[in-house]
Amino acid sequence: MAEDLKKLIIDYVKKEYLDEDSDQEITENTPLISSGIVDSFSMVSLKTFLEKKFNIKIPDEKATTEAFDTVNNIIKLLGEFVKIDDK
Amino acid sequence: MAFSDKVREFFANELKGIREKGLFKEERYIASPQSAYIKVEYPAGSPPKEVINFCANNYLGLSSHPEVIKAAHEGLESRGYGMSSVRFICGTQDIHRQLEKKLTEFLGTEDTVLFPSCMDANAGVFDVVLDKEDAMIADRLVHASIVDGMKLCKAQTFNYKHLNMAHLEEKLQETQNCRFRMIITDGVFSMDGDIAPLDKIVELAEKYDAMVMVDDSHATGFLGKNGKGTHEHCGVVGKIDIITTTLGKAMGGASGGCVSGRKEIVEMCRQRARPYLFSNTIPPVVVAAANKVMDIIGSTTRLRDKLEENTKYFRQKMKEAGFDIKEGVHPIVPVMLYNAKLAQDMARDLYDEGIYVVGFFFPVVPQGQARIRVQISAVHEKEHLDKAIEAFKKVGAKYNILGKKKDDIVAMYGL
């Protein structure tokens, strides 16, 4: 599931935040917020997407810019709300 | 003592961090009125130096206009200095209501209510109009005051890629189940001077039954044929539900802002907008001067026409000189340098040449988009513009960037 989840988030980030003609590479370790790809205001789209997808509510105090800075960080955060199979 | 060493040390470290990141803001003391030439004490403690100002929002040159100053004096004499009240207790004079009516007529809306600033207008308006069953759909680069205003509102937040109408339409489709929806945008975005396509936004709003809110602070008074703003520029006067704007830029530049638009929304702001209810009224002297500003811009387009000519001239000459200028028609002219240090170094050298401009870099603008932002004014004469162009050429040659585009500049200086 972790691999599927990684792909799901990367695909969403590319579609939601990059221009159609962008050649920016996004991996699980690409800084999203500290690099400026996603800013703290537009981060809300990603949070809403994850909440709807997994039917969870991520409290504001957990939705920090650090927690959303890489896909790996996001997966770690999601692990607090849903069971993620590593295999 | 409540301000213990622990607290003091915490904030000293915070400030150190801000300095280390290069984000520490320093004020420059100006010992003259706002105009084409200003006397600036920089660095602090040095004797004031006369420079040509290319970084004020004084688009129409009204900040120190003799008729505006005269009106301020008369307002001070006839209506006093302060009101010592919020608007609804004993803080509304006849001249406040006159100004609101003039703004309504000029902007082509139904009614207007003044706020202490546009920041306050944006802080108050969303919470008054929308609730948790509603949606706010904003351009990703809206002004910080809109972001803060949206945070104070219970409605759900959505945003779309900057100026991207297809993405906005996706968000409108995604929010079909909400009670009310509002599309939120700046009319002109302050870092690039790019203009929201309000005609297309209105079209989408009509198709999906959404309201439209525009912060037109960088357009009111000069954009559009009669200077009404972005809605006039885009041919949608009367179709914007909420316009917030400022008196602190083109409109005399002192202070104050407003919400202008549908009369029910304006009335709701009078009843419920917290920055309106709990903040002092705009001082009579400012209101009297702003009334004169409205008379000036309502009776002639001379100043906005001059600003338009100045802007065209400066943009054209800078392009001919070989600078990488973001295309557009707005008096905000971004001279693209991409590298943060280069932007800072060039701004400093230009200051030494008597031209006051500011370098902007991440996080104020996106990473790798550092630039010098030049702001043209109707107070500039051709000689001022020529002096700036010559200084830019000299400094541009020093850094070997004339005729160079992004890739070349990045190859030399990095991102």
UniProtKB/TrEMBL annotation, chain A:
Top-level taxon: Bacteria
Membrane spanning residue stretches: none
Organism this protein belongs to: candidate division WOR-3 bacterium
The protein's name: Acyl carrier protein
Residue ranges occupied by any Carrier domain in the UniProt entry: 4-82
